[in-house]
Amino acid sequence: MDAADIVTSVLVLGIIVVSLLSNVVVLICFLYNPEIRKQVPGLFILNLTFCNLLLSVSNMPLTLVGLVTTGHPGGSSFCQIVGFLDTFLTTNSMLSMAALSIDRWVAVVFPLSYHSRIRHRDAVIALGYTWIHSLCFSTVATCRSWVGYHQLYASCTLCNVRAKGAGTQFMVFTVALHSLTYLLTLIVLCVTYLKVLKVARFHCKRIDVITMQTLVLLVDIHPSVRQKCLDEQKRRRQRATKKISTFIGTFVVCFTPYVITRIVELFSPGPISPHWGVLSKCLAYSKAASDPFVYSLLRHQYRKTCSLLANKVLKRSPLNSSSSHGTQNNAGRSDSNSNATNSVQPATDKPPGQ
């Protein structure tokens, strides 16, 4: 192993640890909090978490083994199963992100009719489509023996070496796979989230107009208060832009290098650097580690659930601790009152003549 392989191995190991821990926390929050389970987006997040967890325990460890041993990890049949999972889980997770973006678009653009437009039945139908879509591509690749160990990515995945006898068919299949998964999801993400950003900015603009009218009426308002309101308007606009940029940016940064490498591999006559191939695969894996933070753990509801779980594990509660402090304070006050009464009582019991 050279220095690049060692760094890549450490990177894959870190992705595995972060992905496992973060996705397990999301799963625990989903099972613990009934309010999260009642929400329609919770089903999409659950499906995304399931795909990320399975990818973290099946494909990522084999990639790590392939990097360490610089060879084929496991037998051919076992690698085909893992390659099937790689295609299925990656496709399923991408389509789950697209479903989440559509759900948020409906929630922002049609807030009053959201519950009538997006119901649990609709979410189940959407998830059914993602599973059928993913199963079709992964099953075709496995039945045609187009999955196996790919040295360029040090992982069990689609392998053009195994498809030399069906070069044109494999090219068409690969282009169709990435067009109907990566490209389709990217288009859906851009269209829905940019519409969400447009609506959010429109609402922010209306709030800004009302705020400015109020500030004009309050002529005696202090300049610092006026500046504070203007800064809050700016922060509100920046928050909306930052969230949308995070949703689209993480998807593009993590998946685009891998997809481009796949397409270039089909048509380029020259070899591709194995270090770049493994790095692009690591970036694709890193999406499984970032998804819990992008879609779940940074939201208030999940943070609150994590806090409650942490307090429960540590056998303490904020309410109990505050009540115990209040009890101690009351006890201290009663003790001081009793001491004061005892100190005054002997003086009042003395006879007048003394």
TrEMBL record:
Compositionally biased intervals (Polar residues): 318-346
Topology relative to the membrane: Multi-pass membrane protein
Major localization listed first in the record, in broad terms: membrane
Molecular function as annotated in GO: G protein-coupled receptor activity
PROSITE patterns noted in UniProt: G_PROTEIN_RECEP_F1_2
TM region(s), chain numbering: 6-32, 44-68, 126-147, 170-196, 244-264
Pfam families listed in its UniProt record: 7tm_1
Superkingdom field: Eukaryota
Region of interest (Disordered), ranges: 318-354
Subcellular locations according to the entry: Cell membrane
Any one GO BP annotation for this protein: adenylate cyclase-activating G protein-coupled receptor signaling pathway
InterPro entries: GPC_Orphan_Receptors (IPR051880), GPCR_Rhodpsn (IPR000276), GPCR_Rhodpsn_7TM (IPR017452), GPR26/78-like (IPR049579)
Keyword annotations: Cell membrane, Disulfide bond, G-protein coupled receptor, Membrane, Receptor, Transducer, Transmembrane, Transmembrane helix
Physiological role: Orphan receptor. Displays a significant level of constitutive activity. Its effect is mediated by G(s)-alpha protein that stimulate adenylate cyclase, resulting in an elevation of intracellular cAMP.
Protein name listed in UniProt: G-protein coupled receptor 26
Taxonomic source organism: Amphiprion percula (Orange clownfish)
